[in-house]
Amino acid sequence: MRRFSADYLKDTRRGMWNDRAALAPLALDSRTRILDVGCGTGELTRVLREESDAEVVAVDADPDLLRAADADGRALGDATRLPFCDDAFDLVVCQALLINLPDPRAAIEEFARVSSDVVACVEPDNAEVVVESSVAAEAPLAKRARDTYIAGVETDVTLGSSAAALFREAGLADVESRRYEHERTVEPPYDAPALDAAKAKAAGTRIEEQAPTLRRGGLSRTDVDELKSEWKAMGRDVVEAMAAGEYERRAVVPFYVVAGRIDAGETERGDADRLADADDGSNEAA
Ligand SMILES: C[S@@+](CC[C@H](N)C(=O)[O-])C[C@H]1O[C@@H](n2cnc3c(N)ncnc32)[C@H](O)[C@@H]1O
């Protein structure tokens, strides 16, 4: 399981839900019991609680992150084996979880088991990320590193744009997908996370952390070292431009909000199939 730090999650989610129009298909104001799966530090959980009078329960497989999530109930658990009975919630949702799972469809099917009404996800398509920077080398380097990372990573980090198809395959009905752009900007005056990010670039920290994935994506160790050295030089330019108050960066991360309804007909058919499949002793050859 890929691990995330609380600081990373808090930093990358800043300002993400200033505009909440894309969450409309979740009908948050009509919910009574919501489950946020893969809640991390509870960045989406907080939004769900602000937009709804429902009881909001948070689940994550990482106990340290889960502890930081402010929810009405918290449970340690795996997205593909949720510790809840069938139909326990009227909305089951996740944010940036499916892109980290080897079998996202199994998780969606599990969400459908514990939901009586709607299943939803908020997932990015990392292939569509756009970076603009006042340091000329930054955008092309970021794209090169990102494309290689996507080629080497073992889960589908571009899943957002195809999540609706997965929902349909999992048997959900009335599936709706909305594209939402999270814009992140760095400009003067710089805050502490922006200054830390610049220092990390100048140290090549991220490239080193991602080295195994970049190698799976086709780079030799020498290629990784070359990329790291270009990255560090770019980072030093960023630090210098910040010291002069001249650095500006804009990143747009597209997220897809996908929602689907539990298909009552499907559930009844499923029950009938299960009854037909049940071993009643009449089929000794099976
Ligand atoms: C990118 S973070 C997203 C956290 C939060 N939803 C957010 O948007 O800030 C992915 C989260 O999924 C959790 N996670 C990964 N695999 C999981 C699994 N199989 N079951 C439950 N949680 C899982 C991680 O611990 C992490 O907190």
From TrEMBL:
Residues 267-277 have a biased composition (Basic and acidic residues). It holds the Pfam family Methyltransf_11. Residues 35-114 form the Methyltransferase type domain. The keyword Cell membrane does not apply. Residues 267-286 are annotated as: Disordered. GO terms for biological process: methylation. Keywords: Methyltransferase, Transferase. This is Class I SAM-dependent methyltransferase.
